[in-house]
Amino acid sequence: MNSRHDPPDVSVPLHGASHKVLIRRLELVGGDRIVDMHPGLNIVIGDITTGKTTFVRLLRSLMATVPNGLPEETERIDALRAVVEIGNREWVINRPLTTTRSAPVDLSELADEPGYDPLFFRLPASGTQASYGNFLLREAAIPVVSVPQARAKPTEGLTPVSISDWMGYCVVTGDEIDTQVFGHAHPFRNQKRRWVFELAYGLYDPEVAKLIAKLKGVTNRINGLERESEVIEKFLADTPFGSREALAQQISQVESEIEGMSNAPQIRDELPNDVGELREQLLAVRASNRDLADEIKRTEGQLHDLRDLNGQLKSQFARLTRAVISDEWLVDFDFVVCPRCGSDVDATRHDDPSKCYLCLQDPHPTPSRDAYLIEQDRILAQVQETESVISLRAKTLDVLNSNLHENRRKEDELSAELNNRTNSFVSDRAASLEDAAARRAYLRSQYARLQEYSDLLERFGDTGAAKQLLEEEKADIESEIERRELEASPAEENIEALEVRMLEYLTRLRIPSIGQGTSVSIDRKTYMPKISGRGFDALSSQGLKTLVNIAHALAHHTVAIDRGLPLPGLLILDGISANSGEGDFDQERVRDVYRLLVSESEKYQDALQLVAVDNSIPSEFSESLLEKVVLHLTQEDKLVRF
């Protein structure tokens, strides 16, 4: 198969280091809905229960894990088919709408360059190796790493940071926009949120993560060798072998004794001489019996053939006798009527008397009666000769059978005598044979056991050398980790830029002042935003939390673009005006949000795709933002069409 169609290597990006993720088209296969989207700001509006939140969940499902509990109407959707620009390339993605981890996702590259063979893959939806999720991370130049499950134990269990974890910074759902910061209220999601922050802002070096994973493997191998060494030491401690030299000496002694027993005289050399003579006589009688049996078989075959020949001769003699008699009876017989049709036949019907008057042909000469009689005499003589030979062969067969019977009697006697003498000898030697066999078996088992001890000692020596090499490798890895951690990191500058940008956005949103004035900081332990010293959970109203969440999420993405941080260039905000009141102040804050989104989308253009989901657009922007509306849902035209 063409290598361009093999599963890709997820260790390095294919096309540069662009973090762009731009959804250009989304089709709900089976749901009769196609949504064309564009760079910058995209607006989705509609009444409640029309499918806005479902659309947000489907957008997230396209890039990450399909969640459980989607609405019943999504059962009509077989797959999500989309055109997505990732990094510097466009792809057609067909993602089945199923929670199965191994569901196949098809990806085809859109490319019209002359002579360029576009890529296409089929990858499982998720997994630790070549998977759709890892492919998206690689194409968007986002680190594909695993991080410790417990921060206090960096070399123990590792967990991968998946595309779903990175998408946690890209989707702010309507039920979390006024209550949570990227799902911080969920312990598992909060742990991954913190890891993504550290990876994105440079607090946790991906190369250090790989080194830690490698360090874990080396440490596990060292621990395994240490446990193995302990087992071998305990095992050898209970044996009488203190050193390799002593063990080798015992092995040599056992080998010498086994070899001496193998070279001992065999039993057959010690048997009495008359036993050998009896065996030779028995073998000679058995050979004679085989010869007699063969001769009897040949004689019986000859008798069978002679009797068949005698029968044939007698049959031929009988036929000749019948021919002589027939000739006498039919010599004067003439036909007076035709034997076929019964008409009269005249003997003078032809002029030539030498021809047969019946068939008008020349008669064939027939043997004379004298010739038949001569042949009879010859056959009779042959019959007599054959019967004489049969008699001789029968007498020979009787003699052969008698000889065979006598030889078989001798064979039985010799065999019985030989068995009697052999059994007597073996009985006399039984005790010594048993002792020798037992000794030989013991020596062989002892030799095998000593060889196992020798192998263990050899392995023990190899274990020590292997452990030394692993210890050196571990020291090198630890030195590299320490060196990288001591290098100057831009992490603090990145976080300070985030704080400045978020304060700028909150100022533009004109949030109410808290205390002496508005300030923004990022907690260096939890990475949660603080507004004038107050944590997110301590803010006074849901409306204020919504504005903080919008400013916080947008600041992450614009700072990431400005400073080249690895964060997907996609932000989805659901429920922008869900908690706004009817008063002029609240409505003005909603208009400030839209002004901020419009301004930043124009500034960053196709580097950041914004998706704003709301019930409606403020009337002030109804005309200017009409072209930004990519999906308008109503009670008559819901997301999934039936």
What would you say about this model in short?
This protein has 642 residues and is α/β, with parallel strands linked by helices. It contains 11 helices and 16 strands. Helix 5 (206-237) crosses helix 8, helix 6 packs antiparallel against helix 8 (369-486) and helix 9 crosses helix 10.
The SSE string, one letter per element, is: EEEHEEEEHEEHEHHHHHHEEEHEHEE
Oligomer: single chain
Number of helices: 11
Q: Report low-confidence residues grouped into runs of 5 or more.
A: 1-5, 7-16
**In total, how many beta strands?**
16
| Estimated radius of gyration | 55 Å
Structure classification: alpha/beta
N- to C-terminal separation?
Answer: 42 Å
Kindly estimate the percentage of residues that lie in beta strands according to DSSP: 5-15%
Percent in helix: 40-55%
Please list the strands of the largest sheet in the order they lie side by side: 2-1-4-5-6-7
Structure description:
The protein is an alpha/beta fold and 642 residues long. Helix content is 51%, strand content 12%. It has a six-stranded antiparallel β-sheet. The chain is elongated, with a radius of gyration of 55 Å. The two termini are 42 Å apart.
Topology:
Blueprint: E1 21-29, E2 33-36, E3 40-46, H1 52-63, E4 79-86, E5 89-96, E6 104-110, E7 120-124, H2 132-139, E8 146-148, E9 158-160, H3 163-167, E10 171-172, H4 187-201, H5 206-237, H6 244-262, H7 273-330, H8 369-486, H9 491-509, E11 520-522, E12 529-531, E13 534-535, H10 542-563, E14 570-574, H11 584-604, E15 609-614, E16 629-633
Parallel strand pairs: 3-15, 3-16, 10-14, 14-15
Antiparallel strand pairs: 1-2, 1-4, 4-5, 5-6, 6-7, 8-9, 11-12, 12-13
Helix pairs in contact: 5-8, 6-8, 7-8, 9-10, 10-11
